[in-house]
Design goal:
Number of domains of chain A: 2
Structural class of chain B: alpha/beta
Radius of gyration of chain A: 34 Å
Largest sheet of chain A: 6 strands, mixed, barrel
Structural class of chain A: alpha+beta
Largest interface: A-B, 24 and 29 residues
Helix content of chain B: 25-40%
Number of helices of chain A: 13
Shape of chain B: globular
CATH class of chain B: Alpha Beta
Strand content of chain A: 15-25%
Radius of gyration of chain B: 18 Å
Oligomer: heterodimer
Number of domains of chain B: 1
Order of helices and strands of chain A: HHEEEHEEHEHEHEEEHEHEHHHHH
CATH superfamily of chain B: P-loop containing nucleotide triphosphate hydrolases
Distance between the termini of chain A: 28 Å
CATH architecture of chain B: 3-Layer(aba) Sandwich
Chain lengths: 405, 260
């Protein structure tokens, strides 16, 4: 049997009915393009959520000073003054699942430089904060443990603050005023963008917590303790252990409520990630339906083609074509149709997802797997939906077929 | 040349052996409740280089017999030996190979593939044989030259007259160098002059040693063969040699040309 010759016959047959072939191919093209677009969009969505997760911090455990009811009067969050530096030290020393700890005292304040001023949030933190939040220095350097011990008047500023206060000027080494305190800018932060709740995270200045506690806030208690657990899986248990430790340290009786909150912002984002994954799978399933419809289109056209070419099949069988040869010829046609459809689909899919990416300003990444899967899938569609018509053709009785008008 | 190649290809055949030997062939068809007896015991021998015409009314069993000779159908009982090999028990795949290698078909309606050149149409049977690409084309060119269409190789069926199309069909039948040429009403769709032209090709090929079996219902056409069989009710009723066989090439001279 001559395979090249058979495939050539198949190709010639398809080119004979150009319009019909194109329309048939269109079904597969749309199906494949839809699947590729959906996968690309889904992946981009997931990448965004994952980026947020990453933004949040390194296995982030967040302990917040809590509300407490004192004689029936409830204080609301941050109402207690029981969360102190020693708590942070104890957590760091006594809970092996937690690898780094930074105290956090924050508030909002007016900052002034030259003829510019700005109202921003400040945070008093330790140098570990940069690692815990995965927040990296752009220019200059972070302040050091030494700065913390000396309560040095230094700060690291976010991108928004830099842009508003300094404009194009290089802020490193400049002294600005944080309310009344002259404070040297030692570094700037890389932008982090908006938080999950939509706040501008770059509108902030970071200072040693000692400086904030002594010179700005003048209070010995902390607003938060921010920690990094050793692994992602350890986050939950580390939080529970920290809670137990704090209850013990704060001498809370079993019936009393916590005077702090363990926050799990990761949970929310994880849930978003799950939802986005589910949605992607759902959309792929819907897009796959169009592929099946395209496949049925191929089957339909192939059946018509077999009927139309009954005589041709009769001739081929009469001159010595075996059942397999006839089957291969018609399978060749349907696979060619679906392959061409698949190739065009990949092209339109890539183009489409690029356009969607441009419109939504999402980082689109083309996955090679999606393209390979699409190619394989289109071949599978061709074989699956071409098999029945090809089988039908191969089983034609040549005597009847030759007589067919 | 054709004959020389043929004996090379089918070297096992002893000279004088029958190319076709049918022994008491029967064929029944089950049509619902009724059983149709299409062939009722046909026995026959056809020698190498014979030119046999089969005649008979429709329903006489001649088409059934033809299909059997062409290995498109199998007898219900009896034996059919093609070049000494009993093919009546062969499976479908083996029959396909025999059709491909040993039998050349010419049909009434030409049955060429549309929008396919004469050369490609002629090449069709080689597609199903184990032949190299270059050899395939060489054979197709050869076969087309043999039927006098060397200058029409790149023409499509739609660009050719009925006679030319039928000659392409003959070339296609010859391309795998078969043992027999089976023609089923080859002149059925042709005018009288073109019919004689095709018969000229057949006589010419037969002179070169090709065995030809021809089904026709036209008495005039049957006269061009060497031997005429008449079928009736599934049996051979008459088996005669043609006494004064006309030469198609002679008759053509007496017929008006198309231009007249």
């Amino acid at each position: 049997m001559n395979y090249a010759g058979l495939l050539r016959s198949a190709l010639v047959a398809l080119l004979r009915n150009k319009m019909r072939s194109i329309l048939t191919v269109l079904g597969i093209t749309i199906g494949i393009a839809a699947v590729i677009c959906v996968v690309a969009i889904g992946k981009a969505g997931q990448a965004r959520v994952e980026q947020q997760l990453n933004n949040l911090g390194d296995n982030f455990v967040w302990i917040e000073a809590g509300g407490r009811a004192v004689n029936g009067v409830r204080t609301g969050t941050h109402g207690t003054k029981t969360l102190v530096l020693a708590d942070g030290v104890a957590i760091k020393n006594q809970i092996p699942l937690i690898k780094s700890v930074s105290p956090n005292v924050d508030g909002s304040i007016q900052i002034i430089y030259a003829n510019q001023n700005w109202f921003t949030g400040y945070r008093g933190v330790s140098p570990e904060y940069f690692d815990i939040k995965r927040w990296f220095i752009d220019q200059g350097a972070a302040f050091s443990q030494d700065d913390v011990e000396r309560s040095a008047d230094v700060c690291v500023i976010g991108r928004t603050v830099r842009d508003t206060l300094f404009g194009v000027e290089d802020p490193i080494g400049k002294v600005m005023r944080v309310k009344d305190l002259p404070c040297k800018v030692v570094g700037t932060l890389l932008p982090k963008g908006l938080s999950v709740s939509g706040q501008d995270q770059d509108d902030t200045i970071l200072m040693p917590y000692t400086t904030v506690m002594k010179k700005i806030k003048g209070a010995p208690w902390l607003d938060d303790i921010l920690c990094s657990a050793v692994t992602q899986d350890a986050v939950k248990i580390a939080g529970q252990e920290a809670a137990a430790l704090l209850r013990d340290r704060h001498h809370l009786r079993p019936e009393e409520e916590d005077d702090f909150n363990i926050r799990n912002p990761e949970d929310i984002i994880q849930a978003q990630l799950e939802a986005s994954k589910t949605l992607t799978v759902l959309l792929i399933a819907i897009a796959s339906i169009s592929l099946i419809v395209g496949g049925i289109g191929i089957m339909n056209v192939m059946l018509v083609s077999v009927t139309e070419r009954t005589r041709e099949i009769g001739i081929r069988v009469a001159v010595g074509a075996t059942e397999e040869a006839i089957q291969l010829q018609f399978l060749g046609e349907s696979v060619m149709l679906s392959l061409v459809g698949g190739a065009a689909g990949v092209l339109f899919g890539v183009l489409g997802s690029y356009l969607v990416g441009q419109t939504l300003q999402w980082p689109m990444q083309m996955s090679v797997e999606a393209v390979i899967v699409a190619a394989l899938f289109s071949v599978a569609v061709g074989v699956f939906f071409g098999y029945y018509p090809a089988r039908k053709a191969s089983l034609l009785d040549p005597i009847e077929a030759l007589r067919y008008e | 040349m054709q004959t020389a190649n043929q004996t090379e290809l089918n070297g096992t055949v002893l000279p004088g052996n029958a190319v076709i030997r049918a022994e008491d062939l029967h064929k029944y068809y089950q049509l619902g409740e009724t059983r149709v007896h299409a062939l009722r015991g046909v026995s026959l021998e056809i020698q190498r280089s014979e030119f046999v015409a089969i005649m008979g009314a429709s329903g006489s069993g001649k088409s059934t017999f033809m299909n059997m000779l062409g290995c498109l159908d199998r007898p219900s009982s009896g034996r059919y030996l093609l070049e000494g090999i009993d093919v009546s028990k062969h499976d479908k795949r083996a029959l396909a190979q025999i059709r491909n290698q040993k039998i050349g078909f010419v049909f009434q309606g030409f049955n060429l593939l549309a929008r396919t050149t004469a050369l490609e149409n002629t090449e069709l049977p080689t597609l199903y044989a184990k032949i190299e690409k270059a050899e395939r084309q060489k054979r197709a060119v050869e076969a087309l030259s043999l039927v006098g269409l060397a200058d029409r190789m790149q023409h499509f069926p739609s660009q050719m007259s009925g006679g030319q199309q039928q000659r392409v069909a003959v070339a296609r039948a010859l391309v795998n160098r078969p043992a027999i040429l089976l023609a089923d009403e080859p002149t059925g769709n042709l005018d009288s002059r073109t019919s004689v032209e095709v018969m000229e090709v057949f006589q010419d090929l037969n002179d070169k040693g090709l065995t030809i079996v021809l089904v026709t219902h036209e008495h005039d056409i049957a006269q061009f063969a060497k031997r005429v069989l008449v079928f009736r009710d599934g049996k051979i009723r008459k088996d005669d040699l043609v006494p004064h066989r006309p030469r198609a090439s002679e008759i053509l001279k007496t017929l008006p040309t198309i231009d007249d």
